[in-house]
Amino acid sequence: MTKVSMTVNGKAVSGEVEGRTLLVDFLRQGLGLTGTHVGCDTSQCGACVVHVDGKAVKSCTMFALEAEGAHVTTIEGMANPDGSLSTLQQAFQDHHGLQCGFCTPGMIMSAAALLAENPRPSEAEIREYLEGNLCRCTGYHNIVKAIMAASGQDVSSIAAE
Amino acid sequence: MPDGGIGASSKRREDVRFLTGKGNYTDDINIHGQAYVHFLRSDVAHGRIRRLDTAEAEKMPGVLRIFTAADFEGVGGIPCGWQVTDRHGNPMQEPKHPVLAEGKVRYVGEMIAGVVAETPAQARDAAEAIVVDIEELPAVIDMKEAVKDGAPKVHDELESNLCYDWGFVEENREAVDEAIRNAHHVTTLELVNNRLVANPMEPRVAIGVYDRASDEHTLYTTSQNPHVIRLLMGAFVLGIPEHKLRVISPDVGGGFGSKIFHYAEEAFCTFAAKAVGRPVKWTCSRSEAFISDAQGRDHVTKIELALDEEGHFLAIRTDTYANMGAYLSTFAPSVPTWLHGTLMAGNYKTPLIYVNVKAVFTNTVPVDAYRGAGRPEASFQLERVIDKAAREMGIDPVELRRRNFITEFPYATPVAVEYDTGDYNATMDKLLEMADVAGFEKRLEESRKRGKLRGLGINCYIEACGIAPSSLVGQLGARAGLYESATVRVNATGGLVIMTGSHSHGQGHETAFPQVVADMIGIDPSMVEVVHGDTANTPMGMGTYGSRSLAVGGSAIVRATEKIIAKAKKIAAHLLEASEADIELKDGQFTVAGTDKSVAWGDVTLAAYVPHNYPLEDLEPGLEETAFYDPSNFTYPAGAYACEVEVDPDTGKVEIVSFCAADDFGNVVNPMIVDGQVHGGLGQGIGQALLEHAVYDENGQLLTGSFMDYAMPRASDVPFYKVDHSCQTPCTHNPLGVKGCGEAGAIGSPPAVVNAVVDALQRAGHDVTHIDMPLTPSRVWAAMQQG
Q: Which of B208, B218, B516, B592 matches a 20 to 30 Å C-alpha distance to B583?
């Protein structure tokens, strides 16, 4: 076992991990941050996306020890400081961008990373960017719509609201 | 009326916890002292276990105990919940389905041993140290090969690999044959309904807990129907009476059918928790899910449609081979029979129908219900053969459908169901407008200029939802009733709790059900809470599948709330010193008709629990009622769908450029949620049509065993959909007039996609009448090369 230390959602944390411990397992089991989910074992589904030093990372594809000293943000750190939903989270609720909720944390983390680098993405850019995030409930319609709305675009003309 | 009643697109209250990482899924639950199990699974499809030696593995670090079949002697097999009777009047062949493999393994993924250890990694390491020697036997994978004389048998104790040979309606068989022989035109189509993996994003999890002090078992499990699991596992597998067994299904990350069934892992964890004296947790990996979750579809069908000179349908005959996999999963036998044959009339007046289904055991993962379950298979073949017939006879496909639409209701089909309401012309009219079918030729020209082929596919669908009248399904072989339950508890200060036997795993019950109750009483929906997913605090109910939660579960909630209101009116009458018959409830106020005397909802509820001024001689205190609702018929949502595609003539790649769905769901409680349900169904249906396929090689190895190989639809594979449910013919036999919307999209969309691609190819001069799903670029390209 090796000690690992990092900053998660603004708080300094540390724990003992094996060399093979994945970042997602450290977050879920070590820190009890169960908002980050595991939906596959081949780095395809994106349910485990977190931000590591500002970049969207699949936390099932990174060892906990690789995050030594890093600043990690998880879904638990995405709401506004007063606990209210962020603009992006609120857009997902407003536009019914989630159903079972299991892919949602990864979707929010990926979408936040997209908006950070591209503040007004087109529909095509959003669909392309979400290549690494699977959702089985929504058919993606309302996820794409929610992200467009969160970026300030008028989505009222998109069919089937 | 307060905001947020029936018909409001209320935002979902459950979203807040899901959006902030506060959901409580089964894998998020950790019980103090829990151990972990890892299952050793068969890596061959068919074989005899010659040697199973756990001695070395037991010495590995952290191992608490290793279980094999020997530990499960005296434990029942995993039961099947539906017995189908074959066309000769004999019961289906029903093999034993052991928790852990006994002597033989019958599919890749079957559990051979369970290793319980201190950590997941230790359990996994020790499972790899188990010595297992399996004599590999020839596997049967192809259904038609499996039923040939001399084929290797999946189950040695059975007569053959034929589970049943089902005929429906058997009495119509000769008349159908004769009608087809004598018809002006017969269109024949052979097709495959591709095998799928449901793949809810949350893999299955089970945690067994045993309390030695009370002799009580608790199972946490990712189930769509915790009460069903409690009954099946308690009564048939482990012999635990229900009052000593609690099943909890907390937030569940999607199901789509695959989490209906009782799985061996659930029984294992419950059993092992007592044997080891520790809670035992199992978390399924995605790779494991591919070889252990029951899979879907997998029909091979020949359908014949007989028509007269004017295109009127005279008769339909279908022959289907339906894959059961190696064992009978919970509802497997019902899917290709009663959920499939009964829908073969579709939206059309066809006087004679005969459906034959041969269910076959193979050395593959068990197959059971997946979103739509039988009904997509019925719609697909029917809507494809109609399209083919239209082209053969030179009749417009929409016109051919209209010519045969059922237009008078109720309508008794020749396949034993009675449609209560519908208006198929209305949804078709709506669809043609939404899809701008009139403008298609112009869009076709534009595509041609860009070197693309363009096609338009239109079809209808119907399904039977609101499953199901208990006495009817009992006659058809169901070993369960299919009512739903609700307890409505009113608290002293006026808030309510709905305890429902249905289960939400994405459908938004926590938002929609309060809309119904709030509407009835005239209070704000925020005063109503929903409790579900725990057998300890909900009445016995059958769970959520078959688009039944609102139609059946919602009806139970209405009935219970009606009882609440009736009693509350008695209390109000007492408080107002008026006759009960004069009491009216509106906007949360009880008033005496024709007067200005009134008492508020909260005053009445308080009186019920603080009965100082109360008619105690006539009425019990308290305000809590339970209702069990057993539907008198299925519900019949129906609609018309249109898909427009562009095909790249050089690569065969299909792009969905537009998809429109006009549905009739009857009344709608929350339009936003209904739209979302249709979107999701369309995503899965388009996935089936273009991308998804569970493929086994001839040795029974699943070649598409991960998200690397099994093509799940991604955001860039689908367009924005246009959906509409403004055509509403309310259900006549449930109190809400609702029909159910969960499966429609997955049922109606695959034929639309295939019809569109065939249309595109034919418009480009290719002699292509059918391509089997999934319509991958290579299949479409190959079809273009051949004709």
A: B516
Weakly modelled stretches of chain B, pLDDT under 70: 1-2
For chain A, state the CA radius of gyration: 16
Given a contact cutoff of 8 angstroms between Cβ atoms, the answer to whether B497 and B529 are in contact is yes
Could you name the CATH architecture of B15-21+483-629?
A: 2-Layer Sandwich (3.30)
Q: What is the pLDDT of residue B787?
A: 80
Q: Check A99 against B712: CB less than 8 A apart.
A: no
Ranges assigned E (strand) in A9-54? 11-17, 49-52
What confidence category does residue A161 fall into, taking pLDDT thresholds of 50, 70 and 90? very low
Say which CATH class A87-150 falls into: mainly alpha
Please judge whether B684 and A89 are an interchain contact, meaning their C-beta atoms are less than 8 angstroms apart: no
CA B119/CA B34 separation, integer angstroms = 9
Cβ–Cβ gap A42/B20 under 8 Å? no
Write the residue in A18, A75, A137 that is nearest to B20 by C-beta: A75
What's the count of helices (H) and strands (E) in chain B, helices before strands? Answer: 19, 28
Q: Looking at residue A57, what is its pLDDT?
A: 98
**Which residues of chain A are within 8 Å of residue B17 when distances are taken between CB atoms?**
101
> What sign results for the dihedral spanned by CA atoms B116, B121, B124, B125?
negative
**Do residues B555 and B631 make contact, with C-beta atoms less than 8 angstroms apart?**
yes
Q: Looking at the predicted complex, does its ipTM rise above 0.90? A: yes
CB contact under 8 A, B706 and A92: no
The nearest CA of chain A is from the CA of B302 a distance in Å of 31
C-alpha span between B181 and B362 (Å, rounded): 34
- What digits encode the pLDDT tens for the residues A101-140? 999 999 999 999 999 999 999 999 999 999 999 999 999 9
Tell me how far apart the alpha carbons of residues B466 and A24 are, in angstroms, rounded to a whole number. Answer: 40
- The whole-number pLDDT of residue B209 equals 98
CATH tag for B31-137+201-254+259-290 (out of 3.90.1170.50, 3.40.50.300, 1.10.760.10, 3.40.640.10): 3.90.1170.50
CB pairs under 8 A between A and B: 201
Query: What are A82-99's pLDDT values in tens digits?
Result: 999 999 999 999 999 999
The Cα B149–Cα B581 span in angstroms is 73
